[in-house]
Amino acid sequence: MRIYNTKTLQIEEFKPIHEGHVDMYVCGPTVYNYAHIGNARPMVVFDVLKRLLEAEGYTVTYVSNFTDVDDKIINKAIEEGTTEAVIAQRYIDAYQKVRRSLNTELPDITPRVTETMDDIIAFIQELVNDGAAYVSTNGDVYFSVDADHKYGEISHQRLNELEAGARIDVNEGKRNPYDFALWKKTTKGIQWDSPWGKGRPGWHTECVVMINKNLGPLIDIHGGGMDLRFPHHENEAAQQECTHHNSLANYWIHNAMININGQKMSKSLGNTLWAQDVVDRLGTNLTRWLMSSVHYRKELNFSDETVETARKELDKVMNPMRSIDVKAALNGVTLG
Q: Quick one: DSSP state of residue 208?
C-alpha cells in the first residue's frame, strides 16, 4: 500500500509503527456552527481510508476531536445568554448526525478540549520549562518558532519566505511575529486557572495534546483539510519536535477544498452549503459519490453540472444492482 505524504511531497510505501495496526488522527471541527459541505469532505475521505486500511487487514484506531472552546463559541454563548457547553453540544450533535447521514463509521475516540485541560496546561508548562515557550508582557504564553530548527517541514514554508497575513497575529507581546499563542489570558467567557493566570488554551496546542493523550507521541497518520497545513499542522509538529523530538506523525494526509460553482465557499459570498441540507437533498449515496468523484488532493467543484454527472455515474452502478434485486425478488430469493 502506498500513500502520498504531504511532509515529503512523495508517494511512499506505507509502513505502520506497529505491525497490523494503524493510529490515525484527523482534525475535527470548532463547534460554533453547523457543518458545511467542505467539512463533509474529510469525513468521507478519511472514512474511505479507514475502510481501505481495514480491508487490507489492519486494525485502526481513529481519533477526531471536537474543539469546544473558542472565541466564536464564547461570543455565541454570550449572545444567546447560555453556556459554552450548551452551544458546543448543539453543534457536536449536529456534526455527528452528518457523519451518520453520510454512512461514515464514527471515530473510535472523539476527545474534547474542555476534557483535556490539565494535560494541555502541563504540556505548555513543559515547553516553558524547556525554553521553547515564554510568557509575554501581556500575560499570554507564546511558542517560540525559533526553538524548532525544522519549522516549515510540513507546509514547506520557511520563516524568511513567509509574509505576515490575516492568520499571523502581530503584536508587541511577541518576540517573533510568527510566534503563536499557547495560552491566552482572558476574563471573557469560559476560563481555567493556570500558572500564568486565568485563561484558555490556543488552538494549535489543543490538537497536539489530544494526540499525545489518546494515541501517543508518534502516530502513523495525521489528516485534515489542505487549509490546515499552515499554520495549524505546522505548529502542532513544531511543539512535538520541541517536546518529543519527532514530527508527531509519519504520514501527513490532506484533502483539498470544495468550491461552489467555481468560487471559494465563504460567508461573504453567501454561497455556504450546509452538509446536512445537501445530504437530505441528494441522498447519502450521491453525496458520497460526488465527494469521491475527483482525487482527494484536487479541488472539488460543487455545481448543478457536477451533481448531474455524479448522478449519471452512480446510476450506471446502481441500476444493474436494482435490476438484480428485482429479479431476485421475482424468484423469491432474498439477497443478504
A: H
